[in-house]
Amino acid sequence: MFIDSHCHLDFPDLAKDLDALLQNMQHNQVTHALCVSVNLPDFPRVRTLAETHVNLFASVGVHPDYEDQIEPQADELADLARHPKVIAIGETGLDYFRLQGDLEWQRERFRQHIRAARKINKPLIIHTRSAAADTLRIMQEEGADQVGGVMHCFTESWEVAQQAIAMNFFISFSGIVTFKNAVALKEVAKNIPLDRMLIETDSPYLAPVPFRGKQNQPAFVRHVAEEIARIRAVSVEEIANATTDNFFNLFKLSKHGIPN
Hints:
The chain is an alpha/beta fold. Helix content is 40%, strand content 17%. The protein is built from 10 helices and 8 strands. The chain has an 8-stranded parallel β-sheet with strand order 1-2-3-4-5-6-7-8. It is globular and about 40 Å long. The two termini are 20 Å apart. The mean pLDDT is 96.
């Protein structure tokens, strides 16, 4: 079985077809999915998805790309994360690719999320783009290793992956790893310890080959697993079993999706 460790089923383009998407998950042996929050105004609909469907979970956080937000404070995030179906803090992190100028507000927002995760003892979902050095520095300064988490939609170097793993983080691969030009990322996927790997779709974005350019969905996560199996010359069942176990272990869940 497969688990999509990062998707956005609350986004309108996916939410309108939710029943069909859940059926496609079942047909493709995708048993669970983590619906990831990107801002606090929309968090209630993420939480409702998790409350309504036994195989869906939620996170709470504010994405680094979202400007002009009321800045979340650690206590507020921790309180929202006390819900039993909210299993992580994030997504959070740094993104210097889309935004320019003084981004100290982004770094402070990231710090608040790490502090919330430590307060509530739940793992982090970290987004980093064109900001690896600062991301790792703030993780170290704020003690992110105490709760661990996942470097989602990983596209960084093997050196960055090693530093994240040393801080108790998992590395998650998206459909990008199936792209022909993702040569360096394929090498990272080949070398990551199997007990530190997750798979995801980040749907509705980044659909894997053979669906590249189309709207992504959780059912397609199996194609990520199949490509990693090809790269590592192992069975897809080995990748499926390892990443499923890793998901349950990281997010402190029983095999039935019940918080431990």
